[in-house]
Every structure is written in C-alpha cells, then in structure tokens.
Amino acid sequence: MFDETVEDVSGEAPPLEVGPNETAVALSAIGSTRHVSREEPMPIDASLIVDFSGSMLWCVETPGTNCVANNGAGSRAAAMVDATNEAMRIILGADERNRVAVTDFASSTGTLVSLGRPAPIAQTPGR
Fold first, then answer.
1. Domain that holds residue 106
2. Where do runs of H (alpha helix) occur along 1-127?
3. Which end of the chain has fewer CB atoms surrounding its CB within 10 Å, N or C?
C-alpha cells in the first residue's frame, strides 16, 4: 500500500508513479478562508443521574466493605457526590445560562435537584 500526502501551493499536481497492480487515486480540495467575527455560546440544560443503591455505601478502596462506620468517608457515595459537584461546577461555570438537574435512582427514582443553578450537594451519610 502506498500513501502519500502532498501539498503544492503552486496548484500543479506533482507526478504520481503507479506500479504494476496498483491503482492511483488523486484527491484535491479547494478551501477558502473564513473569518468568524463572533461566537455565540448556546446554553445547555443537563440532567445528572446519580446512584443511591445500597452498593454505593461500599468503600471505594475495599469493595464489599460498608463505609457507614466511617460516616460515609471513602464510600462510593462520597466519591459520587464529589464527582457530581465537580460536574455541576464545570457545567454551570461554562455559561451563566446553563442549568442542571440531579435525579437519583435506587429501587425507585426521584428528583434531588430541580432544573436550575443549584449550590453544591452536601455530603449526607446514609442519604
């Protein structure tokens, strides 16, 4: 297989050598300069779904071990809250019109935070 990228500002196509049992394909593109005078950001609505099932009480470092005795410190739930807060910080910080909702699920679902510009979620052991 032969692959060659060629750029020639003169507009002339360079010679192309084709061997036996080879097929040559020449592609060309014509481009134009484009000037962007302004960029208008588009606000987003994001919905974050978080897991509040029983396994989220397990310790991150020792799966299967319950971290409730540590007041939830080191649990999957604590890591999830940190990650959710970081995601909200990034989304809400990108544009003042962006909005976030947070929905939880376990054996059922519910709305933790309605669509808006919420403050960070507090770490609440045992939910």
1. 45-116
2. 76-94
3. N
Spatial CA neighbour of 92 closest among 46, 39, 41, 49: 46
Residue 34 lies in a domain: no
pLDDT of residue 126: 43
CA-based end-to-end distance of the chain: 60
Please check whether residue 110 lies inside any domain of the structure: yes
Instruction: Give the whole-angstrom CA distance, residue 42 versus residue 34.
Output: 21
pTM: 0.62
- Percent of the chain at pLDDT exceeding 70: 75
Report how many domains make up the chain.
1
Residues in the chain: 127
DSSP-assigned beta bridge partners for residue 49: 103
Measured at the CA of 92, the angle between CA 77 and CA 98, to 5 degrees, comes to 120
CATH number of the domain within which 49 lies? 3.40.50.410
Q: Which of 109 and 11 is assigned the larger pLDDT? A: 109
